[in-house]
Amino acid sequence: MWDYTPVVKDHFLNPRNVGDIPDADAVGEVGSLACGDALKLYLKLDENKDRIVDAKFQTFGCASAIASSSALTEMVKGKTMDEALAISNQDIADFLGGLPEEKMHCSVMGQEALEVAIYKYRGMDIPEHDSEHDHGHAYPDHEGTVVCKCFGITDTFLKKVIETNRLTTAEQVTHFTKAGGACGGCIPKIQELIAQVLGDADAQPRTRPEKLSNMKKMQLIQEVLERDIRPLLWADGGDLELIDIDGSRVQVAFRKACAGCASSGNTARMVEMKLRDLVAEDIVVEEVSA
Amino acid sequence: MKEIYLDNNATTKVDEAVFEEMRPYFCELYGNPSSMHFFGGQVQGKVTEARGRVAALLGASPEEIIFTACGTESDNAAIRSALEVFPDRRHVITSRVEHPAVLTQCRNLTQKGYRVTEIGVDGSGRLDMDELKAALDTDTAIVSLMWANNETGVIFPVEEAAALAKSKGALFHSDAVQAIGKIPIDMSSSNIDMLSLSGHKLHAPKGIGVLYLRRGTPFRPFLVGGHQEKSRRAGTENAAAIIALGKACELAGQHMEAENTVVKAQRDRLQDALMAAIPNARINGGGAERLPNTTSIAFEFVEGEAILLLLSELGICASSGSACTSGSLEPSHVLRAMGVPFTCAHGSIRFSLSRYTTDSEVDTVIREMPPIIARLRQMSPFGREFLKGQA
Lengths: 290, 391
Hints:
The structure holds 2 protein chains of 2 kinds. Chain A is an alpha+beta fold. Chain A has helices at residues 6-13, 63-76, 81-85, 89-95, 104-121, 155-165, 170-177, 187-202, 214-235, 264-278; strands spanning 26-32, 37-45, 52-60, 146-148, 153-154, 238-246, 249-256, 284-287.
């Protein structure tokens, strides 16, 4: 059985905003019956045609697909379209208190449907999906070539997901996008893409800065936690939350599989070492139960 | 919440009488059956009795029963043994709908230079016997075909297949984990050389299995070490579980008729009522001969995990061939092999009953299932289109 958070369960059992908006300004549709999940998102804009005043959805899919769609509609209401476009799939997962990694593709589907709806509204070029086997990844930047033939997923899309979610293994990419999850024929290509994206990141070597203001230090601690540490914990079904930063003392609380895990002490040391490597040598990580 | 357990092909409740039978063999009668002293000897006596009870259910002789740790071990041992006793034969035949315990091993063999043929099935899940005939040759070391499918309950003509295998000098193994205890099996008049059984599918505990090995069949052990099981499976006997399995087999024999009348009638009532109440549903394998306790129903336009979790909220335990419950992304290999269309492969639910299933539990599922499907179809873009078309 999947370890869904109470928020996921709530949004699955009591989904918000199911239905359609007959006079919707923007509609985004991704997925298909063949893929096993699909989402149709409706957006209604205010009179200035800028702010989203209403959102509705229809979803074919598992519990986390339904919960992700429900969360998405709640998140976009009241936002301008530009603000909505800034929502990442990780934001959707965070809103739900996290998703099992194997289910991250549900949050990606939500984020995609949102982009499709807004780009379509703005008249940007979007390929229509026509065949049953086309996943309908109507990704606006569709210059890319298809990598995963089973699910019709392009390299452009994969690179974006690899980059934004800092994925490091082909298995993670499958969990986030489904690519490689059926015949597995494209896994070597996915590994190449990961190497490319990681290579790009390595082009700017990351070392500990010489001197940091308190403000910068706090920012950097948060950045390293988000970018380097939390994805590692997700891979094992865990997570952490930053509780407080007091000078060089960093207080974190472990969540999900990490909470109450016998080796959370080791995890805290791992976090500390990473922060010492990338932020400042005097960092001390404390685990709190908040 | 009291559970309504209709997932007996996944595992079963340990029968109270089975549990009572095994209970003394942990803290009191804990001797090693191989020991020379009286204390081990009395356990040995019970293990012998259990072996006889298992043999009786299968129509086998006690010495043809090898206790293992699980069905998977039995499957692995059977196939490996055949390849070792026939080193010159480099071909293995199985089916596309086998349990992973067989299929994964066979697919791994292709990496080691073996030729592996996976026989297909038709839309009702029936084995393609012509394909089997064509695939068999004198290079075939072993044919391994399941007796009954875990997802659909479809029964394969294993006796006929075993006769074909024999005609080419190949060994025949059947993964009978789902069949034993549900349909009568008689190894005394059979061409089957090896057969796997798993205790926890027939109201014995988890962690005990059997490999039936026909007398005279050449065999190489999977686990080597001690002389247990006549040196065919080393390792100290799991005495308590063996004793439990013996009792469970005795009870299965006694309940066999009820399984095929009472349980079957409940299963039929459940599937007939659901098919009548829910449009655009189909029974996977409905056209084939099936186990009396199993039905797999595909509901169009909805996804299986969502159905299962809504059922679970009501205490109803079932299973699905859906990808999203397993972490894989493709619908079940069984349903795909049967060519179940994508529109409903993702929304297939398996109910598997047992002698513990009550009529009122069946009534509850008949009552609760239609609104769950309606609710999810209302939420699904494809379901809504379908409902609009109906209105």
